[in-house]
Design goal:
By secondary structure, the protein is mostly helical. It contains 14 helices and 2 strands, in the order H-H-H-H-E-H-H-H-H-H-H-H-H-H-E-H. Helix 4 crosses helix 6, helix 5 runs parallel beside helix 8 and helix 9 runs antiparallel to helix 10.
Amino acid sequence: MSQVLRTSLRRLDRDNLHYSSCVQFFFVHAACLLALWTGVSAVAVFACVALYFVRMFAITAGFHRLFAHRTYRTGRVFQFIMAFVGTASYQKGPLWWASHHRRHHLHADTERDLHSPLTHTVWQSHVGWFLCRDSLATDLSLVSNLTKYRELRLLDRYYPVPPLVLAVAMFLLGAGLGRYAPGLGTSGAQMLVWGFFVSTVLLYHGTFTVNSLAHIFGRRRYETEDNSRNNLFVALITLGEGWHNNHHHYPSSERQGFYWWEIDVAHYTLRLLSLLGVVWDIRTPPERVYRQRILDETGGDEAAPLSQPRSA
């Protein structure tokens, strides 16, 4: 771990930065400082937190578990809703996101993995890869099963539109509340700053911890070829994505917290939606995954069989 952190002190490769992406990324962060001018209110904080978790669910259950891995099935309407809300996170479009994630699994923690903290730097794995020229292209050959959906292609091409729609909606909502419910103490500018800018920045860094922290800190249940880790903190802030070693061992499972004590809010939500008929064919780890010999989670070399999980 210490070697990874020392390596991360290497000089940033400025020549590879895509400056248009950097300007947009910096602007979203800098706009958060407007909170010093707009102030804060309970309703603004509520909007910030709510939009963080709603969009995190769209990234986790939509971009990742649906588009990148197809771990469950759903109708075209719900698929579009997930794609639109996920794109409103301002992390580019669903085809771009799924393509890069599939590339990550093909080359995890090798030189060809754009966001590995082992072969690059912690900065590169967390933020730098998102801002570099190498990440601009979308390898459509990796997502050929998704390109047949015209609406996904349009969202991918015009990915700034959903975030812009959300930003305008937040401003209009705040302006409306300021006029018709002045007791809430909010305004258009305040809701824009907290509901969009602050929430989006938190969402950026929450999502990116899976690439950085979950490949450095945590426990390894399975002896995978990469350095993926199970990390409770990352699981909590990403609605279940922190069980990353589980995921890299068996990426075809929708459920990433393989055991009842591994909190996976996205999985619980999808299970509820399956009861309502919104999603179906949810894929789970096969029995052999639980029978396999594993690494001792205390860090030793001893291995022990896993017990069956409690149903969830």
